[in-house]
Amino acid sequence: MASARVALIGLGGIADAHLRKLRWMEGVEVAGVCDLSASLAEAVAERFGVPLATTDAERLIRETRPDAVHVLTPPGPHRALTELALRAGAHVLVEKPIATSWEDYVAMRDGARAAGRLLVEDFNYRFQRSALHALDLVRGGAIGDPVNLDVAMNVGLSGGAYADPVVRHFAHALPGGALFNFASHPASIVAAVLGPHDAVRARLHRLEPDGQSDDELRAVVAAGDASATLTLTSHAQPSCFVATVRGTRGFLELDLWGQRVHVAARSGRVGRLLDDLGAGGSRLGAVLAAAGRLATARNEYVEGLGTLLERFYAAVRGEAPTPLPIAEMDAANRLLHDLFAEENRL
């Protein structure tokens, strides 16, 4: 089968990760890149050996005739660019958050369905090795039926680009401010574990007096017979992304950035001791793996992106189903928008 022709629109920081992953994938050819900055598009094309660089998305699609398009711009133009790609018959992978409103997301989803094409959101942390292993354990009944899920993500908004008072980061203008740009990640974990939710209550804070938008989100989510708590904050240190799933027969701890999974499901003092020994081994293994990444200068913060892209292009070739079922993407996006809806505020 001929290589899948790929076009990228939007060449911000995340585009580098996409291009690095695509460069080593068999059966994939990056045919063109596009950005509003001509100099950036030309520099990226030269660095990665891409034949076409342009500032015109319509020209990119017309001249490359791509099998798939990666939409990597800020969220505002996602719908228009996705619809442009779908009209050309391309499958579409879109950077998170996929849309700034539920209505735009539904239009994109339904448009892909009508065109018979894939639409996949880049929930890269959902595809980390540790996350996939944890989901296999939970779905396989290792801890029984999920009862409660705690998800916490500590991110930095008080420094760097998010704090620049002169060049305002695009995320501050999103529906929930800068937090909206991060909340897709914990929402994707809640949706993957618990499925669609029934109700949400959330509270937003701005703890940094000079902050340009809210910097902490706390929420309670009801989902059938289970519940979840979600915390997204820039005021807890160190940076982390962790989740604990409590079930009817045990619990599971997931450290997404530390790439660690621990299950405790034994009863009695001996059972708890064995579980504790297992936790120690899991932590030691994660430390050694992190040391190996440090020694080899291998940063795996987008490790899950590689897995997602491999599965996406297997689906494009018709060799596998979509890596992200529409029902799960629906649940994650419904939760994302409900977290920031005024009627759900505490």
What does this structure look like?
The protein contains ten helices and 13 strands. The chain has 346 residues and is an alpha/beta fold. It has two domains: 4-122, NAD(P)-binding Rossmann-like Domain (Rossmann fold, 3-Layer(aba) Sandwich); 126-304 and 332-344, Dihydrodipicolinate Reductase, domain 2. The strands form two sheets. The protein has a seven-stranded mixed sheet. Helix 7 (180-194) crosses helix 10 (326-339). It is globular and about 55 Å long. Mean pLDDT is 91; it is low at 290-297.
In terms of topology, how is this protein built?
Layout: E1 4-9, H1 13-23, E2 28-34, H2 38-48, E3 52-54, H3 57-64, E4 68-71, H4 78-87, E5 91-95, H5 102-115, E6 119-122, H6 129-139, E7 146-154, H7 180-194, E8 199-205, E9 216-223, E10 226-233, E11 240-247, E12 251-255, E13 260-264, H8 268-295, H9 303-316, H10 326-339
Parallel strand pairs: 1-2, 1-4, 2-3, 4-5, 5-6, 7-10
Antiparallel strand pairs: 7-11, 8-9, 9-10, 11-12, 12-13
Helix pairs in contact: 4-5, 5-10, 7-10
Q: What's this, in brief?
A:
The protein has 346 residues and is of the alpha/beta class. The chain has helices spanning 13-23, 38-48, 57-64, 78-87, 102-115, 129-139, 180-194, 268-295, 303-316, 326-339, and strands at 4-9, 28-34, 52-54, 68-71, 91-95, 119-122, 146-154, 199-205, 216-223, 226-233, 240-247, 251-255, 260-264.
Assembly of the depicted chains:
single chain
Second-tier CATH architecture of the largest domain: 2-Layer Sandwich
- CATH-defined topology of the largest domain: Dihydrodipicolinate Reductase, domain 2
Structural class: alpha/beta
| Strands, total number | 13
Put simply, the count of helices is: 10
Radius of gyration: 21 Å
Low-confidence stretches: 290-297
Main pleated sheet: 7 strands, mixed
Shape: globular
Q: What is the CATH homology-level superfamily of the largest domain? A: Dihydrodipicolinate Reductase, domain 2
User: Into which percentage range does the β-strand content fall?
Assistant: 15-25%
SSE topology string: EHEHEHEHEHEHEHEEEEEEHHH
Helix content: 25-40%
Number of domains: 2
Strand order of the largest sheet: 8-9-10-7-11-12-13
Spatial gap, N to C terminus: 54 Å
The CATH class of the largest domain is identified as Alpha Beta
Mean pLDDT: 91
